[in-house]
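Researcher: We're teaching a course module on how sequence relates to structure. For the next exercise, students receive a sequence and then see the predicted structure as C-alpha cells, so they can try to spot secondary structure elements on their own. Here is the exercise chain.
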Amino acid sequence: MDRKQGSRIVFVGGGHAHLYSLLHADRLIREGAEVVLVGPDQYHYYSGMGPGMLSRIYGPDDVRIDVQRLIESRGGRFVRGEVTGIDPGARSLSIDTGESLEYDIVSFNLGSYVPADLITGAENEAYPVKPIKNLEALRQAILAYIHASTPRILVIGAGPAGVEITGNILRLVNNSAARADVTLAGAEERLLPRFPLKAGLLAQESLSGRGVTIMPSCQVSSLEKGTARTADGNEIPYDLAVLTTGIRPKQVYEGSGIETAPNGSLLVNEFLQSTSHPAVFGGGDCITFRKQHLDMVGVYAVKQAPVLFDNIRARLLGEPLKEFVPQKTYLLIFNLGDGTAIFVRSPIVFRAKWAFTLKDTIDRRFISRFQR
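Model: And here is the predicted structure for the students to work with:
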C-alpha cells in the first residue's frame, strides 16, 4: 500500500497490544495518518492488577489507563462505542452507536470475556471477572453482604483467575473485620491445572489454610436462586457466585469474510496481519496465529505491542513488515491476596512475599508509562 495523505488508521480497543501504538500515535499522525481509537469506555483496566483492585491493594485509578486522554493528547480521536460489524471490502466498521467508520488500516485488540453460556443460569446469577471493571460491582456486592451477614461465596474456576480472585476476596473480607464462607469449585482435579503441580499445591496450601473449601473435579452445570448444581448431581448453596471459568475472544468477525480461527478469533500471520485481508491487523486475546498456538496471557499482548505498531507504520509507509517471534517461556506471578505470590517460570516455582513485591513493581512500572 502506498501512503496517501489522510490515510485513516483505526484502533479497535485500547488493550495491552494497542497501548504502545496509542502512546506513539503522534508519530503516525506526523507521517500523514488520521488516527482513531474506538472503545466502549475511556478507561482500560490492567488485568494483572484487577484482583488487587478487588481487595483494595490498589484503587481503581491505580489500575486503569485513560485511553481517551492518551489518544487525544497525541492528536488522535476517540470514538466511544463497540464495533458490531466489519465490511473489509468497503473498509468500513459498524459501531453500536449507528455510526459507520471507514479505515485504510484497522487493528483489533478487543480482548476477551468470560462466557456465561457454559453454565445454565450463570448470566443472571454470577459475576464474571471480565471485563475487569466488573470487579468493582463484585466488591460492592461482597461488602453489602458481609456488613449484614456471613455470606456463602462460590468461585467457579480453578485457574489463575479463580485462585487470585479467591485470595483477594479473603483479603477484602478480613480487612473489613468480617466473615464469609468461601468455596472454590473447579472442574479439574487440582488448582492451576495448566501449570506445574507445585504451583497448584502452593495455591491450595494458601487458600485452604485461610479457610477456603476447595472442591476439585466439580463441574458446575447450573446456577439457580442461590443453588449451584453439579454434573454429578450435587448441590452447593451460595449467596454470591463468581465466574472465572476461562475466556473467549470477542466475536465480531462473523459474516465479514475475514478469515478466522475455529474459536472465532482473527487468524493472523507472523506479522500480526490478517491472513485474508492485509489492511487488517490485531493483537492480544482476539487473534490466533496461523502456524502456532499461544496461550491467552497478557505477556504476549505486551510483547506484540511494539511489533504491531511498527507493522502498522510500515503498512502506512509501504515498507517491509517485521515478524513477531514469541518467547518460548514467560514469567507469571499469581497474587494470593495475603502479601505473598506464586512465582512461575517453568521449571522454577515458589511462593514468597518478595514474589508479590516483584509483581507489584513490574505492574506499577508498566502501567505508569501510560498514565503520565
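Model: If you want an answer key for the exercise: The mean pLDDT is 94. The two ends are 34 Å apart (CA to CA).
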